[in-house]
Structures are given as C-alpha cells and as structure tokens.
Amino acid sequence: MKRKYAFSLAEVLVTLTIIGVISVLTIPNLISKYHAHQNYVMLKKYQSILANAYALIIKEEDTFDTWKLVDGLYGSKVVANYILENVKAEKVCIDNVGCWSPTITKALNKKVNVTLGGLEGIGLNIVCAKLSDGVNICIDMWGGGDIRNIFGVNTNLNYASSIWVDVNGNSGPNVVGRDVFAFVMTEKGLKPAGSDSNAQKCNPKDMSSTSGVQCAYKVIKELGIKY
After folding, report:
1. Total domain count for the chain?
2. Fewest beta carbons within 10 Å, which of 51, 90, 96, 116?
3. Which residues neighbour 225 within 8 Å (Cβ) at sequence distance 6 or greater?
4. What is the pLDDT of residues 177-187, one digit of tens each?
C-alpha cells in the first residue's frame, strides 16, 4: 500500500487565514477602483451628452448670447428648458426636493459645504432632474467672477450656467469630485470645471482646503483618478 499525504487541519487553517487577510486588504481596494472607473465612464458619457445638447441648442438659437442669461431662478429655467429637451428626464424639480440625493452633498474634504446647497440639490434657485439612467443633474446660474474663481473656467459673460452631474444618482458617497461633478456652459462651449485653471482646487494632497468643484477636468484628464 502507498501512503497518501494530505494537509493537516492546522495547515488548512493557516492557509485560510492568509487568504482571508489578503482578501480584506485587496477586495475593498478593487471595489473602490471599480466604482471610480464606473463614475469615470458616466462622467465621460455626460460630457458627450451635454456637449451634443449644447451644439444642438446653438444650432437652433444661433449664438449662446441669445439665451439672455440672468441670475436667479429665471436664468436657471431658461437653461434647463434647453437642456431638458435633449436628455431623458423622468422627473423635474424646480427649486424643490425630490430630484437629488436625499443626503446633503459634501465637499471633497468630507465636510458639508453649505455653499453647495441642501437637499434640493447644489446651489440656489436651481432646476434639477432625475434622468432615465439613474443620473441626477442640477442647473444653476453663477456670476462670471464665480465661474472663473470657483469653477476654474474663463468667461466674458456676466452670468453663466453650471450643470452638476451626480453620476450614480442617489448612491453614495455623494461627494463633489468623486461622484458629483460640475460642467459650465459659456460662450466658449461646454467645459468641465477646472479646465482653464488646470484643476488647481482639486488637490488630493490638500484635502483641508479643497471643495472638489474643479475636479471634473482632473478626473477626465487622468482617466478616472481615484484618491
């Protein structure tokens, strides 16, 4: 008879323990990278959708200046009327709750940034919409100075429009720069926030002072950076 060798119970337990430790260390990172990639894919998708919508609007209205943009809810409605004609909106909320995440959007440093709004969405006097693919968008108006300083996009307009895109809808983390990104519509076309400032206010090494508003350009440029 030939003797057959097998693993002892102790050896099996040691092997399972090692596998468990490796899983604990690697699986969360893999999941995190997967979600970051999915967010990047949706961000690129909506960059294309919104750019196409912008092109169609300009074709109909001749120039961006004919929109007669003003601050406040009226201005948000003007832009929203154009944009929502070119996306599949299931629900529209005019400065009201119901079309944005049920948790307040946080800044990249994980602190609640009250300047970004509340449960209605991001900003004040806003028009938000739930889209058929689960994405939430929010349209707001800003002065030209804010567009340059906060969003990192150059414009000569007195007012321009921001379009916030929550790429995974009501799912978390609902953080600007991770799953919530900003685009700006100006006379120069649709631009991801941070495109004219090289995303200076999206510095992962300086989390204490960054809001994440200018991260759209950085994430698109660096292929779904995860930090």
Report:
1. 1
2. 90
3. 36, 204, 218, 219
4. 889 999 998 88
CA distance 42 to 60: 27
Torsion sign, CA atoms 32, 38, 42, 45:
positive
- Side chain identity at 114, as an amino acid letter? V
- Residue 3, domain member (yes or no): no
179: which residues sit within 8 A by CB, 6+ positions away? 39, 166, 167, 168, 171, 172, 173
- Which amino acid appears at position 105 of this protein? T
At 161-205, the pLDDT tens digits run: 899 999 999 998 888 988 999 999 888 889 999 999 888 778 766
pLDDT band at 32 (very low <50, low <70, confident <90, very high): low
Angle between helices 73-84 and 9-61 (to 10 degrees): 100
CA dist., res. 27 & res. 65, Å (int): 50
- What is the b/e burial string over 36-59, where b = at least 16 CB atoms within 10 angstroms of the residue's CB? beebbebbeebbebbeebbeebbe
pLDDT digits 0-9 by tens, 102-143 = 888 888 877 666 566 678 888 888 999 999 999 999 999 888
Domain assignment present for residue 227? The answer is no
Domain span at 56: 9-221
